[in-house]
Structures are given as structure tokens and as C-alpha cells.
Amino acid sequence: MTLQDKTCIVTGAASGIGREIALTYARAGGKLVIADLNLPAAQAVADEIQSAGGSAMAVAMDVTSEEQVNAAVAAAVAAFGGVDILVSNAGVQIVHPIEDYPFADWKKMLAIHLDGAFLTTKACIPHMKAAGRGGSIIYMGSVHSKEASVLKSAYVTAKHGLIGLCKTMAKEGGPFGIRANVICPGFVRTPLVDKQIPEQAQALGISEGDVVKNVMLRETVDGEFTTVEDVAAVALLFAGFASNALTGQSIVVSHGWFMQ
Ligand code: NAD
Q: Is 1's pLDDT higher than 90?
């Protein structure tokens, strides 16, 4: 039970990758804060954890709202007595060629991915420092933190930006035993990706099957999607690691799509 009694806040934990990380952390003994825009879906994940004998609460949080982030972190601290692990995972995807990319969508993408990571980090760090038992901050990057694809100017920009924030937090957190790392998944079959397949097919003028085979998985070593379980396993490693030896890093989990 590597996370026994650790309080873990996971944003975007009502669905997909965040949900699987929350379930994995709960099985490892963590006390889970399921933070999401979608409160009923977050509550369902918290209920699932509680029915399996774990500890969890759901909180409504729009990661772009400083007020909501601060209120949700305060509620988590009041309920569980601190914050040990933050997984800044909430994210969306909007694809357009840049000449058609609405400025409002560009700002929305940067707000969810970058403001969200900044605000949740800023809210959690004082509690980690005050408790004096270190902490782990995990940003959900992407292969697109290292690599680019057409139609994804805002996503690629935001996901690259997380690496800079992570390295800075590793340095600021180091003296307090607070580590910061980035997970960079390849394509994972979640609602975020299911929505993209028809959109990319239309934008690129190809079939949905070709989007999967020739766009999403073409560069992998085996034509396979990465799974939510693959990503959660890396998230558990980062969360449970015992020292500052593993900080300021980004690990790509993508069936070899991107190799460092
Ligand atoms: P998902 O759509 O299954 O889940 C995303 C969750 O984030 C949803 O529950 C949604 O309600 C929540 N959310 C969206 N906006 C929010 C906001 N403003 N505040 C709080 N919650 C919000 O998506 P997923 O595939 O699980 O993606 C999770 C993360 O993983 C994202 O950061 C995404 O960029 C990243 N990622 C996904 C893939 C992939 O292939 N699925 C690959 C690499 C990285």
C-alpha cells in the first residue's frame, strides 16, 4: 500500500485517465479527492471507491477558476487533513488548422491545461509545505509535450508548457521534498479521443479507420493504443517514489510512438 493514508487530489477524475488513476491510488491506500467539472460523474467515481472499502470525496472544480480551485482544495484539506499528491489531469482537445482556430478556443485550451495546472499547484503547495512531509505533483502531459501534430497548435503549445512548469516546481519544491513530474501518454481510447476521431477524419478528408491506423497509431511499435491502466501505473510510480531522485522528469508511455 504505497499511498497509505496519503491525500490525493486528481483533477478531471470523473472520466478516462483521471478516473483510472483515482481508482489505482485508492487501491494503493490513498484518500481520494475526485475533482471535476462534472460533479455527478465525480460522485459516481467516489462512490465506486467507497463501495470497494476506500476513502474518497467528490468536489466540483473548474480548474480555470481560481475561486473554485481554492475552495475545492480547502474542502479536501478540511476533510482529509492535508494534500500529499496532486494530479493535474483535467483536459480537453479542440482541433482546427491554425487559420480556422477560433481565438476563444485557443484561450480556452491554454486556460484548462496551463491555468489549471498553475492554479491547482499554487493552491496545494502551501499545504504540502506546512505539513512538512513532502509531496508529489504530477502533470498530465502528452506525447504532444515533446512532439507536434497538425491541427493541434493550442494543445501542443499547452502540453509543452507543462514541462516548463514541472521543471520549475521541481526546483521550488525540492528543498521541501515536493517532487514534480510529467506523464506523456500516447493515444488512449477515452471520450477525449473518441470525439477526435470523426473530427480529424473530417478535417483531413480521410476515413475514421485511417485516422486510427495512419494518424494516431502509425508511429507506434505495434499499432496499439496506450491504456488508462498503463498511464495509471506510471502515475503510481511518480506518486509513491520515496525521494527527490525522481523529480523534474517527463516519462513517455506511448507504445514507442515517441522515443527520447
Ligand atoms: P476525458 O475526456 O476522458 O476526461 C477529461 C475529464 O476532465 C472529464 O471528466 C472532464 O469533465 C474534465 N474536465 C474538462 N475540463 C475541465 C475543467 N475545466 N475543470 C475540471 N475538469 C475538467 O479525457 P482523458 O483522455 O482522460 O484526458 C485526461 C488528460 O490526459 C488530459 O489532460 C489529456 O490532454 C491527457 N491526455 C490524453 C490522451 C488520450 O489519448 N486520451 C493522451 C495524452 C494525454
A: no
Q: Is the CB of 16 under 6 A from ligand 1?
A: yes
Instruction: Count the domains in the chain.
Output: 1
Q: Is residue 222 part of a domain?
A: no
User: Any idea what the CATH number is for the domain that residue 240 is in?
Assistant: 3.40.50.720
Q: Which residues pair with 251 in a beta bridge?
A: 183
Q: What is the pLDDT of residues 151-199, one digit of tens each?
A: 999 999 999 999 999 999 999 999 999 999 999 999 999 999 999 999 9
Q: Does residue 154 lie in a domain region?
A: yes
Atom number of ligand 1 nearest to Cα 41: 9
CB count in 10 Å sphere of residue 50:
14
Q: Would you say the CB of residue 123 lies under 6 angstroms from ligand 1? A: no
Per the CB < 8 A criterion, the answer to whether 25 and 2 are in contact is no
Quick check: is 25 catalytic?
no
